[in-house]
């Protein structure tokens, strides 16, 4: 059974750095043709892709947010970590991690709502 | 960067057929995936690789893709299909996924 679960702070202050962890089970992060993405959704708005890490540890970032994002993985812990620097209230959103397989996202975490406020 | 365009809303009566479009430049050459998202829930994959359905997704959900438009078709619409729907492709030129802006399907 494949599952993904996001964890991290529910509230961060402006200018702070956000660190989110995605813990996966039911598959290996070294599995070829699979990867994990972080995707966010501001309240009432559309999905926005942020970053992706492939099984070979290659990474890809949203062009508009690249300077603020870092994605990494610890295969032994089955975890994918996203850091986003210099948080702003406009970054308030539900943050999802999702498994990518052959181009689609076949499993998603439940999401974690992060609010940016002083 | 590659852009996917969806209508903001589609309305349909129960039992009728809903068609949700996803426009993109030569999208027919790409593999399109569709997600259903209900309020307060994570998205769920309902169609992948243009026409395939994951296990557990009803046959009422089908997809097509040609030219500059991909379409998600929901036959015999039920009240439970009331949700937001997103299309997605993997843009090979930038090597990252792209989502459409989403379509709110309202079952009247």
Structure commentary:
Chain A has 118 residues and is mainly β. Chain A has no helices and 11 strands. Chain A has strands spanning 3-7, 11-12, 18-25, 34-41, 48-54, 59-61, 69-74, 79-84, 93-101, 104-108, 112-116. In chain A, the strands form 2 sheets. In chain A, strands 2, 4, 5, 6, 9, 10 and 11 form a 7-stranded mixed β-sheet that branches. Chain A has a 4-stranded antiparallel β-sheet with strand order 1-3-8-7, with no helix packed on it. In chain A, strand 5 and strand 6 form a beta hairpin. Chain A is globular. The N and C termini of chain A lie far apart (39 Å). Chain B has no helices and 9 strands. The model of chain B has no long low-confidence stretch (mean pLDDT 97). Chain B has strands at 9-12, 18-23, 33-37, 44-47, 61-66, 69-74, 83-91, 96-99, 103-107. Chain B is globular. Chain B has 108 residues and is mostly beta strands. In chain B, strands 1, 3, 4, 7, 8 and 9 form a 6-stranded mixed β-sheet that branches. The A-B interface holds A 37, 39, 46-49, 52, 60-63, 96, 98, 100, 102-106, 108-111 and B 1, 31, 33, 35, 37, 42-45, 48-49, 54, 86, 88-90, 94-102.
| Distance between the ends of chain A | 39 Å
**Helical content class of chain B:** under 10%
> Helix and strand succession of chain B?
EEEEEEEEE
Oligomeric status of the shown chains?
A: heterodimer
String of helices and strands of chain A: EEEEEEEEEEE
Percentage beta strand of chain B: over 45%
Radius of gyration of chain B: 13 Å
Find the structural class of chain A using helix and strand composition. Answer: mainly beta
User: If you average the pLDDT of chain A, what whole number results?
Assistant: 96
By DSSP, the count of extended strands of chain A is 11
Radius of gyration of chain A: 13 Å
Shape of chain B: globular
- Helix count of chain A equals 0
The DSSP helix count of chain B reads 0
Compute the separation of the termini of chain B in Å: 36 Å
